[in-house]
TrEMBL record:
This is Short-chain dehydrogenase/reductase. NCBIfam families: PRK06179.1. Belongs to the short-chain dehydrogenases/reductases (SDR) family. It comes from Labrys miyagiensis. Pfam families: adh_short. Gene3D superfamilies: NAD(P)-binding Rossmann-like Domain. InterPro entries: KR_dom, NAD(P)-bd_dom_sf, SDR_fam, SDR_oxidoreductase.
């Protein structure tokens, strides 16, 4: 397809932040873009069609895919961006809360992917981009459950890519670093806070606010998604931003003991 007619893209969690920036970047690049949000939203002024989709519901995920097919006839690109955060000590969350985070961040991706794969298989082609994180590569104190979802996405995506590659479908990961989005928007607090973590939890939240303020713009991630979407022979992973690339290098090539000490220092934890 020409640059002015790339194909049909579906982006989850496109109401704000990385999802909105990604939808806009794809639209500028020539895609016809459908975005999803949990609540009804008007279509954007730059031509993004907004659909209601709750990725924690099988029927809602399938309905969004069916709506795109009804309007556009095909889906060439799925960007799984919808996600939630959780900050606090791992034991401060009940299993119910942990399941809720996984339901959005992991099973939401699985639901959307399962709904789209038959479509792409019939088309004999398609691409699915899953938004991971550098926290899918490294330990993340006081973000253990969130980081666990990103580690799960890494393993799921890489494995699935091998399964569907012969069907003309590719699964690609985009790994953002810290991004300047609304801290309050998607972060969740523990549902059973423990006094032993009060001080370190507050410190972790302060640190997160500070690094988010200095983080990459959402457009940096969006640019990585566009590269991943359009590559003829896509890489398995695309880091988004300088910090993300540095973290990936550290994790892959430096001794584990060095990474451990560096991570504790960065998080203000005693050696």
């Amino acid at each position: 397809m020409s640059k002015t007619e790339r194909g049909i893209a579906l982006v989850t969690g496109a109401s704000s932040g990385i999802g909105l920036a990604t939808a806009q970047a794809l639209r500028r690049d020539g895609y016809r873009v459908f975005g999803t949000s949990r609540k009804p939203m008007p279509d954007t002024s730059d031509g993004i069609t907004m659909l209601v989709c709750d990725v924690t519901k099988d029927a809602s995920a399938q309905s969004a895919v069916d709506e795109v097919l009804g309007r556009a006839g095909r889906i060439d690109l799925l960007v799984n961006n919808a996600g939630v955060g959780l900050l606090g000590g791992a034991e401060e969350s009940t299993t119910a809360q942990a399941k809720a985070v996984f339901d959005v961040n992991v099973f939401g991706i699985i639901r959307m992917t399962n709904a789209v794969l038959p479509v792409m298989r019939r088309q004999r082609g398609g691409r699915i981009i899953n938004l991971s994180s550098i926290l899918g590569l490294i330990p993340a104190p006081y973000n253990a459950l969130y980081a666990s979802t990103k580690h799960a996405i890494e393993g799921y995506s890489e494995s699935l890519d091998h399964e569907v590659r012969t069907q003309g479908i590719r699964i690609v990961l985009v790994e953002p670093g810290v991004t300047r989005t609304s801290f309050e928007e998607n972060i969740t607090r523990p549902d059973r806070p423990l006094a032993v973590y009060d001080t370190v939890r507050a410190d972790a939240e302060k640190l997160m606010r500070e690094i988010v303020a200095k983080g990459d713009a959402p457009e940096v991630v969006a640019e990585a998604v566009v590269r991943a979407a359009n590559a003829t022979s896509p890489k398995r992973r695309y880091t988004a931003g300088k910090a993300a690339g540095q973290v990936r290098f550290l994790r892959r090539f430096l001794p584990e003991s060095f990474v451990d000490k560096s991570l504790r220092k960065f998080n203000g934890l005693p050696a």
